[in-house]
Write a structure and sequence with these properties.
The chain is mostly helical and 599 residues long. 61% of the residues lie in helices and 3% in strands. It has a domain of 262 residues.
Amino acid sequence: MTARGVLEIALFYGIILAFTKPLGIYIARVFEGRRTFMHSALRWLEAVIYRVSGVREDVEQRWTSYTASLLSFSIIGFLITYAVERLQRRLPFNPLNYGGDRVPPDLAFNSGTSFVTNTNWQSYGGESTFSYFVQMFALTVQNFASAAAGIAIALALIRGFARREQRTIGNFWVDLTRAIVYVLLPVSIVSALLFASQGVIQNLNPPARVITVEGAPQVIAQGPVASQEAIKQAGTNGGGFFNANAAHPYENPTPLTNLLSMVLIFLIPAALTYTFGRMVGDQRQGWAIFAAFSLMFWAGTLVCYHFEQQGNPLLAKLGVEVSASADQPGGNMEGKEVRFGIAASALYAAATTDASCGAVNSMHDSYTPIGGLVLLFNMMTGEVIFGGVGAGMYGILLYCILAVFIAGLMVGRTPEYLGKKIEQKEVKMAMLAIIATAFSILLFTAVSSVVGFPVNGYWNPPGPAGLNPLNRGPHGFSAILYAYTSATANNGSAFAGLNSNTPWYNLTLGVAMWIGRFLFAIPLLAAAGSLAAKKKIPVTSGTLPTHGVLFILLLAGTIVLVGALTFFPALSLGPVVEHYMMEAGELFTTAALNPGIGG
């Protein structure tokens, strides 16, 4: 690692820390129904939405009604997105006359599910598949809707801890509306203008046809990019207008836009920790969660950066200079943008996998084995290192329940958190969420890797058929594992060495996205209903403090331990064995020169 690289990471973290309190206070005021400086400009819009939709903002819901509203909203959003994709030829803003033939039913199912579940996995190239209307009306709208739904779930769970002896946890439709109107919309408008000022394009022009300096013709895609770029980052969605995502100069043209993109990814998840502390009446609790986020973020980012800066030892044995100097960056630059370098690429990769945002500015397929392992493990934690918008907050609260339960077992006391007894129902709901997501990742990976059908006398599993021929062996397994981890964690990033646009992957990855979103969120909403109905018990000398260093370490340790015990065997078959093969010099010829090829 270089001093400049570490300074870049520290600058990014400092910006996030500076915004956490003021934005957290603002979000708390919004969802407590109090006036903010934005109400004079936007209250009319909120009121119109309630009037048109028939929502009464003074009527709250039990957790069952809240969950039913979430599911109905998501299913309807999926159906609309699916229909718009399939019917795009008959819709406006389609200068290249793209039709439904570019979006077969399996791909439409996958992409519709992807955007509704805040995953934004893309088995397609955006600029060569969807019309401008689909990009704006279906995908960008779902970027707002799915992110707002995540915030709503988080607020419902926070109310479960904050309230006492109540049967309701808020109103889903009110929470959804306020998240869009007062949080996501203002952030996105300001961010889109900043992106456009730096060169991110925003137009409805058809692709430009130009002649390059070599005299060859070239078609340059255009479109409404800045508006989608803003919400894809602020909503931790990640779906790019272009296939190259944030590595494309029209999406991410300058170091400033790169920094802005990363800040937007962490901005709201970090602020929600302060919102949590404020709403439960103990700000120390929010800072404890922020500290646990930070501890895991720094650990993962520095490990990833170290191994990417260290580079491929096989190249060093061949006499290639891999150390950073004034003339060259050293390390592993394969798959990375020269204009960003190793530190900004590793930071972006760590941030996007920490926060369930599928945006990428480098190709994860080309990362060193341990660099790729960090990205995988970030998602395997359940996306609770800052995490997605809302999803990170309700995910970390799940682990808070587990942490105090484990602590209670160790000292022989009934576990308590924020004055609420953590009993059988809450622990069962937490374990159901963890088991469901782990089951999805491991089962689909196993089936895709080894289960298949005989073709021409050979056993042909459906998963490896999508791999680049050079990406077989442990790296190929890592690519398949990464795909299902990303889908189940609702992340959306990819190793990029796997062709997932096949019926098998489109369908199974889509199912994994539904599992990761709703079999994780629904048990937590049930826990929220149970917690809200409980009495608050007084703190005694035997109560475990949940705001100090001990609890922060216990919380982070619980997350890492659960992830390690669950996924270590799978990681051992992929990035771990690939790392030792590389260190032993057992990758030869072309494979030896590529840290992203597993032999």
